[in-house]
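<tokenise_the_fold>
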Amino acid sequence: MVSLLKELKRRVLTAFILIPLFLGILYLGKYAFAALIIVFITGAFLEFATLYDLGIRIKITGMIWLITLIILTVFERTSLVILLPLAYFFLIPFFWNKGDSIKKLSLGIFILVYLSFGAVTVYFIRTFFGFYHALSFFLIIWTFDSAAYLSGSLWGKRRLAVKISPRKSVEGYLLGILFTVPIVIAMKYIGIYRLPLVKAILGGVFISILSQVGDLVESAMKREVGVKDSSTIFPGHGGFLDRVDSIVFTAPFYFIFLLRVI
């Protein structure tokens, strides 16, 4: 219990500092939000590349890819995005050496595609659907994550995916979803979540389920290299990759959900 309280204190303090800053940037939107996406998405990529020892050459080409992708998206040059894979392969010969294996190259391509879809659709959620829908998206993910962590730490007994993430529990997962529902209802009635009530609840449950899947995907990546957190840059919260795991996985699906219900 003492260790739980200590960890919780660190998490709350970090969130207390970062969340107001994040919300301010989210409110400003477009250029400010795109800059924040670049910081987090390149940070996540570099952490992954470091964990898997992909090498400096793949790190450089990957950063060029991600930064270019976001810039093209912001300036509405999405038709040029299809050129990025070609550009990536064009750059490879200039950065390739004998220490770079096909496996490393494949891992680099995988994480770039994975992060790219999430980054672009997070930006689209804010740009196409406005501040409140983007705010609702993040609040639901944070609510589920916090509720699942706390309830799992206190009452978790049955492991959810013991080979991937031994600390995650079935009780934490289910109670996380259950706790998210009244928060979604409250968000609906105070004017934050601007969907009809039934669709808002469905959206909240949908985000919660996918958020857990995204978390497990990233846990599997870390499990492969034997680490708990991708880094320690955010005390109590891990690194960039730990902070965007649920977001980048969930965003493409939620973007499609909003397209269908609005």
User: Anything to note?
Assistant: The radius of gyration is 19 Å. The beta strands are 159-161, 165-169. The longest strand covers residues 165-169.
